Amino acid sequence: MRHFDLAPLYRSTVGFDRLFSMLDQAAGLEGPAPSYPPYNIERTGENAYRISVAVAGFTDKDLSIEVKEQALTIRGEKAVGEGEGKPDYLHQGIAARAFERRFQLADHVQVKGAVLDHGLLHVDLVREIPEAMKPRQIPIGGGNATPRVIEGSSNRQAA
């Protein structure tokens, strides 16, 4: 795999920190991607998405969801009750370790809600583009339209 050194760009640009961190993340420079817990990302509509994270053994009190600076962070940590001892497992196949999973959100993507259902945490997202940024049709005038004069008069005399 090729390695690109972006250090010269860091020194000569201002305000592109997020872009460069996304490039580093895509290139795998921030270390190996975590594999726990597994997740799915699906498109549920033209501008709607759903992230499903397998969180078997976690309750809604053990999970937290946060959106900050276009990054969605899902954290899970099992709460240990007072007076409870650690179980004596003969085989432990269900992982209950703490985790943190981050997803980079595109511009104008908002989190609409989250539901914990049968061991899956579903986070619903929607892209809401502001009216000012949506494409709009510009009407084309007919050939009979007279040009509008912005400054001066339309009856200029030649010198």
Automatic annotation (TrEMBL):
<dbReference type="InterPro" id="IPR002068">
    <property type="entry name" value="A-crystallin/Hsp20_dom"/>
</dbReference>
<protein>
    <submittedName>
        <fullName>Molecular chaperone IbpA</fullName>
    </submittedName>
</protein>
<keyword id="KW-0346">Stress response</keyword>
<feature type="region of interest" description="Disordered">
    <location>
        <begin position="137"/>
        <end position="159"/>
    </location>
</feature>
<dbReference type="InterPro" id="IPR037913">
    <property type="entry name" value="ACD_IbpA/B"/>
</dbReference>
<feature type="domain" description="SHSP">
    <location>
        <begin position="30"/>
        <end position="143"/>
    </location>
</feature>
<dbReference type="Pfam" id="PF00011">
    <property type="entry name" value="HSP20"/>
</dbReference>
<dbReference type="InterPro" id="IPR008978">
    <property type="entry name" value="HSP20-like_chaperone"/>
</dbReference>
<comment type="similarity">
    <text>Belongs to the small heat shock protein (HSP20) family.</text>
</comment>
